[in-house]
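ugh ok fine here u go
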Amino acid sequence: MSVRSLLVAGGKWRCFPVPLGPFLVQALPNSCCRKKSTALNKIIPSVALCDENTKESGNALDKLFSSEQQASILQVLNTASNKELEAFRMLRGRKSTNIIEHREKFGPFQNLESLMNVPLFQYKTIIQVCHSILCPETRAEKRKFQDTRHLRKLIKPEIKRERLKAVNSIVSIVFGTRRIAWAHMDRKLAVLDWQQSECCQLMKGTYLSSVYLQEISSVISKMPNADFYVLEKIGLSIQNSSRFPLVLHFHIMEAMLYALLNSTFAQDGQHRVLSMNRNGVGKHLELMIGDTRTSGKELVKQLLSESVLKEGPRVVFPSEKIVRYRQMFSSTEQQRSEEFYDSLLQAIAFYELAVFDTEP
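structure:
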């Protein structure tokens, strides 16, 4: 289209839609669209400036790494599979996928500057990725990172690993709508005590704080001193309004236990009450069927038998208490006393996952 095509009969100027291109940028100042040309003139220099910044960033990347280092980095980026790329911490997730897709579409990377064209890769990100490739994590560092991340999901609040490793005994507490159960276990996985208490009044009436305080204080008065008190954390959604009374009950119980246990046993001023993810315990003990956790009764029954029959049982029930615990188990077997079983299982999982960091 020529400049003449912008003229029509009547001697008036009219603007016809034409493709945006270099010609239009030159023609617009001479047309009636003078206001639009002003906006475009502002955009063009900024685009040029952006290109200039990109070039400067690319040049800076080349200066940061020697030719040998650049060759090593490019070798990894151009040949590694998606799984191999994800072995580097800075390339996990979508970044490794973007590299593969860009490589398949445009061919191998010729230089570090070409990484700027990959989605999610900016100047600072590329530097981190390059350092990650040149100095990959050792197996020990990778394991430590994974362990820390796993612990954060499993146990709240976050506790330094040194304190967990030094644990001598814990009290594992599981509460439901009718009872509270707790197991006192030392680091040899010896059961020092194991009890449950009926609390049938808690969900009756209007959730009186005085009733909760009375019932929970009575249970805590029977508990021994320990390094940590581990509460079961149940992830119940409040989206279902019919579950609201249950969710409210668990929150009241958890808050009461946190406050009373810390005030009763915190002699050194350090936080001693933790919450442990219920499903995390279930996965460790292979009690999960999909997203649902099954009863731990059979596993507890097996542990009791092994304590008598095996030379090196997973859990040690002291000989002077084994008869009592077997009787307690028999008396609860006809009921749904999951809190009783789960308090013991949670203690086992706590030691194996958080203290010893070993699989059974």
